[in-house]
Amino acid sequence: MQPRNISMSGVVDLSALKAAAEAKAKADEARAQRARQAQSQGPAGAQGQPAGEALRLIVDVDEQSFESEVLQRSAEVPVVIDFWAEWCQPCKQLSPVLERLTEALAGRVVLAKVDVDANPMLAQQFGVQGIPAVFAVVAGQALPLFQGAAPEAQIRQVLEQLIAAAEQRFGITGLAGAGAGAGEEAGAGGAVPGPPMDPALEAAYSALESGDLGGAIRAFENVLSDQPGHAEAKAGLANARLLERVRSMDQEKVRRDAADRPEDVGAQMAAADLDLYGGHVPDAFSRLVDAVRRSAGEEREKARMHLLELFEVVGPDDPRVTAARGALTRVLF
User: How far is CA 286 from CA 7, 145, 295, 333, in A?
Assistant: First the structure.
């Protein structure tokens, strides 16, 4: 991911979901209501908490709450949307960075987290092709920001460009006073520093985000040559290999070959890659379990090893992996 020069040109109008003008009117009313509540409660809000804490900076959003949490709020603050899934390892690396930066920016953006498995219609509405994917909504309009994990400094630069563009184009300046404590705790630089990343691992992620999948694969392999049990490097390597395979595929041909040749292990492996890349995790796993059951010898082992690699992409603790491991064991033994 490279920092982009955000100008708000070419944004996607989400008026099909809700008109921006109506969102702004409702947001103005919400601000007025918060002001009335703050005045009636005094310096502290209900239950002794500062009134500003009622302005949540990080929210989980679904298809039902999208209008109120994203569209309406986008009239007063840029809303950054993090499309993620539980099985997505890069998502687990990116989400904490987005959360930390959102807190540090102290109300200049809010973060809406969307689980694509639970909310496929939202992902389709935004044209999400792979995750993690990050968009913004400003004044009811959607703007793609970047896809994949990235170094924190680059992400912060993108968010600062978004804030500046939102103010220049729409006069949107954010939620005054929200999360003020977070900015103070972060210090003059704003972001809370995290532990330093292994340089070899950082090189792998940098290559991945620049689109150099071959370089990313070699870098992850370098990490594993020194630390064979490094779980993050294993997941990163599996993800990079999957992306490299899918990138060169003719998807229609892969689907046609898999349907026409159910006994062809290679065809089923390619289709399983597409299943997983598209978020259809159980379909990918069941396809390869069936391939193992139908095959023998080297072909069976090839299908089994490919399935184990896809387990790494999703993560060993995911219940879908646990279920597929059980199915694989029953087939093998």
Answer: 45, 34, 14, 17
pLDDT digits (tens, 9 = 90+) for 84-128: 998 888 888 899 999 999 999 888 999 999 999 999 999 888 888
Structure tokens at 84: 């993620």
The answer to whether 236 and 89 have CB atoms below 8 angstroms apart is yes
In tens, the pLDDT along 297-306 reads 999 999 999 9
Closest listed residue to residue 216, CA positions, set 249, 239, 250: 239
Closest to 281 (Cα-Cα) out of 120, 95, 112, 96? 120
Beta-carbon contacts of 155 under 8 Å, excluding residues fewer than 6 positions away, are 1, 97, 98, 101, 146
State which amino acid sits at residue 309.
E
Q: Characterize the bridge pairing of strands 133-138 and 141-147.
A: antiparallel
- How does pLDDT run across 15-62, given as a tens digit for each residue? 434 444 444 455 555 555 555 554 554 444 333 333 333 468 999 999
Q: Report, as an integer, the average pLDDT of 184-202.
A: 55
**Separation between Cα atoms, residue 11 and residue 133, nearest integer Å:** 16
246, 270 in Cβ contact below 8 A?
Answer: no
Q: Buried b vs exposed e over 35-55: b needs ≥16 C-beta within 10 Å? A: eeebeeeeeebeeeeebbeeb
Alpha carbon distance 299, 47 (integer Å): 64
For the record, the structure tokens of 19 come out as: 């008109």
Percent of the chain with pLDDT over 90: 37
Residue 179 has pLDDT above 60, yes or no: no
Of 315, 316, 292, the C-alpha closest to 304 is 292
Please identify every residue annotated as catalytic.
88, 91
